[in-house]
Design a protein that fits this description.
2 domains, alpha/beta, SBP_TakP-like, DctP_fam, 6-stranded mixed β-sheet, metal ion binding
């Protein structure tokens, strides 16, 4: 267990000393994930969560984590948690856009905030308020569950040189980005993680986006689609923990506090784990995978993507007052946060690169 999670466990252990009655209460929960149990780092937060609450409660709060290989419903997590088959779930909010388009904001939107900007919006802006407002309709609680940071733009069998190359392309891409690509002529589909390689290999799809080099290389996509594009569509993809409200209300306050602390700790740790994995994989790509051709979409294509993104967002905002309110909240917060991101991170990195060139 890493330093961050150890610190949370230690704090909880101190709190336990003041609540001896806690030892008399045993709770057993189940958590369903969209991902296979072996698909780290996406599967890491729930597994770490279960370990932490067990340790913090002295073995009295047990969460059994089940991957999609067990429950066979990777895109049914929200319904299973709402219905009470599972007390908790771990997935990504934009998978439920068919139920409520406002849910995309709690994962990420194209050309949106970076991970740090988005976390600031969640915890020190209106993000948590709006997320719970939306999920109240489904009688579940929703919390940040780990971020991937900027995701790569996807794996393509052929190079994308113009907008014409997108027309008729069959691509797996979820969330709002799927609607953006659909406006540009792409045939969009959403496929669970376990079926991605087979679909690409059999020609069911011509392209797909997944996460970043740390996860993508392990999936083997580069063996079939060697063109690897930099990101635009998912700048801060946040996973989510879902909790059945009724089950949560029955927890002793001490267990609720453990759950809250643990979720926040493991969400942060996933971001660190994914960043480290991608940095290492990116370095190895240069020598171990020379067939990979790293590309950035041409500027005219990116401009068309940005225009289509704004059109899709504004279209939903015109029809849904809640969507509009959340969109305005994100745009306002990003405008403020981006100024600091540019002054701090962007200018620091730019300065370092300029010094290396001298």
């Amino acid at each position: 267990m890493k330093i961050l999670t150890r610190a949370v466990v230690a704090l909880a252990a101190l709190a336990m000393l003041a609540t001896p009655a806690l030892a008399q209460k045993t709770v057993k929960w189940k958590l369903a994930m969209t991902w296979p149990s072996t698909l780290t780092p996406l599967a890491s937060p729930p597994l770490r969560l279960a370990e932490m609450v067990k340790e913090m409660s002295g073995g009295k709060f047990i969460i059994k984590v089940e991957g999609k290989e067990k429950h066979k419903a990777p895109l049914g997590i929200l319904d299973m948690v709402k219905g009470g088959q599972y007390q908790m779930g771990h997935s990504a909010s934009y998978y439920w856009k068919g139920k409520d388009m406002s849910m995309v904001f709690f994962t990420t939107v194209p050309f949106g905030m970076t991970a740090f900007e988005q976390y600031a919006w969640f915890y020190y802006g209106d993000g948590m308020k709006y997320m719970q407002q939306v999920y109240d309709r489904y009688k579940v609680l929703s919390y940040p569950g780990g971020n991937t940071g900027v995701q790569m733009g996807g794996w393509f069998r052929k190079e994308i040189k113009s907008l014409d190359d997108l027309k008729g392309l069959k691509m797996r891409i979820p969330g709002l980005a799927g609607e953006v690509f659909a406006k540009l002529g792409v045939n969009v589909t959403n496929i669970p993680a376990g079926e991605l390689y087979t679909s690409l290999d059999r020609g069911t799809i011509d392209a797909l986006e997944w996460v970043g080099p740390g996860m993508d290389i392990k999936m083997g996509f580069h063996k079939i689609a060697p063109y690897y594009y930099t990101g635009w569509h998912e700048p801060a993809s946040e996973m989510q923990f879902l909790i059945n409200k009724r089950a949560y209300s029955k927890l002793p306050p001490e267990y609720q506090a453990m759950l809250q602390s643990a979720m926040k700790a493991v969400a942060s740790e996933m971001y660190f784990e994914n960043f480290a994995g991608s940095a290492e994989a990116w370095e190895k790509m240069k020598t171990e995978y020379p067939n990979i051709k790293v590309k950035t979409f041409p500027k005219p294509v990116l401009k068309a993507m940005k225009k289509a993104t704004d059109e899709v967002l504004n279209s939903y905002a015109a029809k849904d007052p809640v969507f509009k309110e959340i969109l305005e909240s994100q745009r306002s917060f990003m405008k403020k946060a981006r100024q600091w991101t540019i002054i701090s991170d962007y200018n620091y990195i730019k300065t370092c690169l300029e010094l290396e060139e001298d």
